[in-house]
Here is the input.
Amino acid sequence: MTVKVSIAMVSILRDGLANGVGVKYKRLADAVEKGIAEGLIEPGCKLPPHRLLADSLGVTIGTISRAYGELERVGLVVARVGDGTYVRQRGMERPRDVGFRNVSDEPQPFFDMSRNQPIPGQEALFLSQSLQALALDPEALQSIRGYVAEAGLLRYRAAGAYWLRHHEFVPKAEQIVCVNGGQHGLLCALMALLKAGDTLLTEHLTYPGLISVARMLGIKLIGVGMDDEGLLPDALSEVCRHHRVTALYCTPTIQNPTAAVMSVPRREAIAEVCRQHNLLIIEDEAHAVLAQQRPLPLSHFAPERSVLIGSLSKAVSAGLRIGYLHAPQPLIGRLSAAVRGTCWMASPLTMEVASHWIEHGIAEQLLAQQIAEIGRRKVLVSGLLEGLAYKTHPHSPHFWIEVPEPWRASQIEAELKEKNYRVATAEMFAVGHGAVPQFIRASVCNSAGDDGMLLRGFDALAGALAETE
Here is the structure.
């Protein structure tokens, strides 16, 4: 950082403090944003250290930290541990957060490896058969023609309980609330059990859908440290000692994006920390169903305080929008009220189809096909990743790939986008303003049966990463 840049920054920020609107850190962030837009602060330049700016402007270091954090949140700067904060290079700005998306806006030539979507199988055939059979069943049609109880018909709840069962974890139908997919289940859980201003803990890299809905509901998120198994019990306990926390959201099996799986001792330790600090647990098992030899859910180890979210979206059919919440009996009324407040009830038509599939083994058949196809595709592309550092799970639909220093994941993302390929960087999963690890998530799910396209996509990714070495 040159003296000239430092002097210019101080001048820009003084003007922002004097003439800006809002609290101090927002005025400072707005001033920097304006300076970048007008070309007064050049792409790639290093911003002055926090203490230097604080002393020069007569504000606290905390105010500078919040201003820099706001700039990083909207994607204008990037913080590098031990090196400082830099203005992003042009063409590599992160889009302002308007919520996560599951459908690509890119034109057809793009091959999208950034999203985990179920691989197309025989569900269209089964859907056709099920709807034709339903059309010939007047009694079934009568049962779905109007409103039903907000938690779902008992038959639907029983089907959900069967879908969520795993070894000794055997849910009861009375503990199930039917929802329109896992994301709707997450929304209902947060609406029912937390309020605006509450603090929710999660892994420091987490599901983007959680980040989006928490922001909309005014719930504060704090990221907790992780290792190769996922959430760290000691880190969770440490955060609880310093913050007033209401609940924990986590993904113990095939964590998104790291693909980590907690061991049984880790699950027991997490459950115990949550008991000690009286935390509610919201557990996401959307991908867990793909790992049939997985450990028991956290809901088994802390049944009195755990809400489990399950769905058919990642294993059977995303379009049906079928999900289930499993919770302690005292919470069922609150969760049901959240369903009523958002959509009155989960759609009886799709619930009827899903229940039929679960009852007659069709859902299990589609799940087995999904697991087999994920495995086949990963074997197909794994040779292309030889020599790269990555993490995955045998049944995870994605690879979590490290970007070698000194390169940035955003640089690889931008290079691949120029070649019509899409990947996801760690930034879209990050909670808080801390340094983001330089990793890329690449999924094998989106080639629609075209092995050639899948191989070309992963070959391009491997080539971009190889050039960084």
